[in-house]
UniProtKB/TrEMBL annotation, chains A, B:
It holds the Pfam family D-Glu_cyclase. This is Putative hydro-lyase BUZ61_02330. The lineage of its organism: Bacteria, Bacillati, Bacillota, Bacilli, Bacillales. Keywords: Lyase. One of its GO terms (molecular function) is lyase activity. It comes from Staphylococcus nepalensis. InterPro entries: D-Glu_cyclase, Putative_hydro-lyase, UPF0317. Its EC number is 4.2.1.-.
Length: 261, 261
């Protein structure tokens, strides 16, 4: 079985059965993978409004009906309570559990959100011959909390988080051109160059993920990061919040090409 | 005083004072005008979700905080209770009043939505030398209810409404190319050609607005229409809903160029 070429529904079934347990990077090539945020309905309106107001960091792909385990567009036959390989459960902002399904937690009052992930545009950058250093170095992308405030919505507020990929300035311009067409997965960079301009003091010490090599002729290129909605939601300390575990994304039924415009 | 070149804030002040009472077509050239929907907060989440799910007919520009009379981005110093020249007030889906302000109705529980309007892309079409027949014939654009269902959200559901502009097929292709860049104001056409394919039986009898001349070498070109969210919201029969009166739009502080991408 080649996990790269399997259909999303097959992979989600294997995940649901516990046969597939690792991260989903590189799986179901050509299909959109998404960040997951699940909240009690009392938070749904403000969180939806937060996504609308912060499209570069929180590009909303889909939202479930209250209590529904599937999605209108991105996973009609999916079950969000079991088809993510690993979940994180937070109560009042504290991680309390990392289960392989959330059937014991899910109830009729919960709303699930799918948020775009940079996996989608990384394919397009690689195909254009641009370097993705963290893939070359085989580890997670470096992520940094900036001093740029997100547009607040109700109890959701905080600074945005960015991911970073080093490139030459020529490559950064090409990458900006390409990501213009991926508005639903973070779009163009938030910043190019001097990290201190966006409040990053030490580029060698990311807040999440792992550092990457920045070559002498390269500049850091920063994109909005899907960690932002999670971190902002956690700051609001909801009584219950469920997310995917990092790298263990929800594999949707929708091809990457649908997100390019 | 030239209403075409006045700043939006000046015009809104004149509207608020009752000095300016007519429709706003052609005013504050170069600034975005918007459809207005105001609802009790109990409906806000489902309506926001409806806009997210129907971007071509309900392109959401901004949403107020609950009880706030201004908008975070499109009218920071505006007052939505008095700066629209004429309002429509509906109770349980019935028109009950067409006041010049809504100060007597507005309360801390209401949420205001601004939705993109085709005035914005019409400027761009005209500048490209494309015909806008209803402007040539100096009346309102013809609008039709289709048989295409909107993606439902909670109690909001129904078929989408389209506006129609006749053009040659060559012009229709050019118009599609141009409106690709106006995703926040309806974007590309919903349909080009045979009206019966989208459930329109008689093109000479629009459901709203007035009919226009279609020349022999022309095809009708249909765009998603901002009447859709109003009609869908009315079908849901909320106890209270306020909108702008047709043509009496909310003039925002944001230039048209911000909506092109």
């Amino acid at each position: 079985m080649n996990l790269q070429t399997e259909h999303p529904s097959t992979l989600r079934k294997l995940i649901s059965e516990g046969t597939l347990t690792g991260h989903t990077s590189g799986m179901a090539k050509g299909y959109i993978q998404a960040n997951v945020v699940i909240l009690p309905s009392a938070y749904a309106y403000d969180f939806l409004k937060f996504c609308f107001r912060n499209p570069k960091t929180c590009p909303l792909l889909d939202v479930s009906e209250k209590g529904s385990t599937h999605f209108p567009f991105y996973g009609k036959n999916a079950n969000i309570t079991s088809e993510v390989a690993q979940y994180r459960v937070y109560r009042y902002g504290e991680l309390v559990e990392s289960p392989v399904n959330i059937k014991h937690l899910f109830n009729d009052d919960m709303v699930s959100f799918l948020i775009g992930c940079s996996f989608t545009f990384e394919h397009a950058l690689l195909e254009a011959g641009l370097p993705i250093r963290h893939i070359e170095e085989e580890h997670n992308v470096p992520m940094y909390v900036t001093n740029i405030p997100a547009a607040p919505s109700g109890q959701f507020s905080g600074n945005i988080t960015v991911s970073m990929r080093p490139m030459t300035m020529q490559q950064a311009i090409k990458a900006t051109e390409i990501t213009t067409h991926f508005k639903n997965v973070h779009g163009t960079p938030i910043h190019i160059g001097d990290p201190s301009e966006i409040g990053i003091e030490n580029i060698t010490q990311p807040d999440f993920g792992e550092p990457v090599t920045i070559k002498e002729n390269e500049v850091p290129v920063f994109w909005g990061c899907g960690v932002t909605p999670q971190s902002v939601a956690l700051d609001a300390k909801p009584e219950l919040m469920v997310t995917h575990a990092p790298g263990h994304m929800f594999i949707t039924d929708v091809p990457d090409s649908q997100l390019s415009d």
